[in-house]
Specification:
- The chain is α/β, with parallel strands linked by helices.
- The chain has a domain of 177 residues: NAD(P)-binding Rossmann-like Domain (Rossmann fold, 3-Layer(aba) Sandwich).
- It has 12 helices and 12 strands.
- The protein has a 7-stranded parallel β-sheet with strand order 3-2-1-4-5-6-10, with helices on both faces. A 3-stranded mixed β-sheet has the order 7-9-11. A two-stranded parallel ribbon has the order 8-12.
- Strand 2, helix 2 and strand 3 form a beta-alpha-beta unit.
- It starts with a strand and ends with a helix.
């Protein structure tokens, strides 16, 4: 199959490209960075250098593809001028336009837990919007929305906090089970969907393991030699103030706080609970803890 991947060689797209290449598919990887071309080609894929913010470029690259994997590239949350929801809207519109004009018939889109919500989900409202835009193609396109849960690697963002305070202070998940996921398990699910015929509209959740904040603190604490590491619940206001103080765009910071509050209340995961994966992913928190410990040691 001729398959187009967005996301350059990121946490998901790199293992995704490697798996599909190993299966014998013809893979093109879109990247906005010219310096990634050699690395992409070294894997055995074709590099398409350009921006997903350019719909004409996307249409050209998508032409003749049997399947396309779409995702919205991360942006700079510390950019005071960034309108994150508008950014998502632009990328979603570009994908929708390019898929339609190129005549693509199979699309697997990376969305998120909470993607079913039009409000109350904070920054994830952008992913909901992308889903809705792509859904307008469902009459002619076999479309799967992949909704991963909380990423293990986001826990790396708490390393500095642990170093400074000896704790993880957040506004969610103390005793509550939170579904976590590895990008490797997401890549495996995306690969499986891309090579199947699919349905006109399918939602697939991907999770690796469900663990409470207390569980996370115990497992990560043991891995970094801090067995007394605590997961501490603080107020939404405390988290918001902390994010703004370190320079995050205040609107995005508020969206993050709302997202975590929705995770804590159960709102974010309400649809996930009804449609959990039949089989959880292979990568567990204890596996990720080794990666966390290496990162902690390097920054300590």
């Amino acid at each position: 199959m001729k398959i187009i991947l967005t996301g350059s060689l990121g946490h998901i797209s790199r293992p995704l490209a490697q798996q599909l290449l190993n299966e014998g598919h013809h893979i093109t990887v879109i990247s906005s960075k010219a310096n990634k071309q050699q690395e992409i080609e070294a894997l055995g894929a074709v590099a398409a250098i350009g921006s997903v913010e350019d719909p004409e470029f996307l249409t050209t690259v998508f032409a003749g593809a049997d399947a396309v994997y779409t995702m919205v590239p991360p942006n700079n949350y510390f950019d005071a001028k960034l309108d994150l929801i508008a950014y998502y809207h632009t990328i979603g519109r570009n994908y929708t336009q390019a898929i339609k004009q190129a005549g693509v018939k199979r699309v697997v889109n990376l969305s998120t837990i909470g993607g079913h919500l039009a409000s109350g989900n904070g920054i994830l409202r952008g992913a909901h919007g992308v889903e809705q835009q792509l859904n307008t193609l469902a009459a002619t396109v076999k479309l799967t929305h992949i909704r991963p849960t909380s990423f293990y690697y986001n826990l790396l963002g708490y390393i500095e906090m642990i170093k400074k305070t000896g704790m993880i202070a957040v506004n969610y998940g103390l005793d509550q089970k939170v579904p976590w996921v590895s990008p490797l398990d997401i890549a495996a699910a995306v690969a499986e969907e891309l090579v199947t015929e699919g349905e006109n509209h399918k939602i697939r959740y991907v999770a690796s393991e469900e663990r409470s904040g207390n569980d996370v603190a115990t497992i990560l604490g043991a891995a970094i030699g801090k067995p007394d590491l605590q997961w501490v619940m603080v107020s939404d206001e405390t988290v918001l103030n902390g994010l703004v103080e370190v320079g995050m765009n205040p609107t995005i910071a508020a969206g993050l706080v709302e997202m975590y509050a929705a995770l804590n209340s159960g709102l974010l995961a309400e649809d996930y609970v009804l449609n959990k994966p039949v089989v959880m992913g292979k990568v567990k928190l204890s596996d990720f803890a080794k990666e966390f410990a290496l990162a902690f040691e390097q920054k300590y």
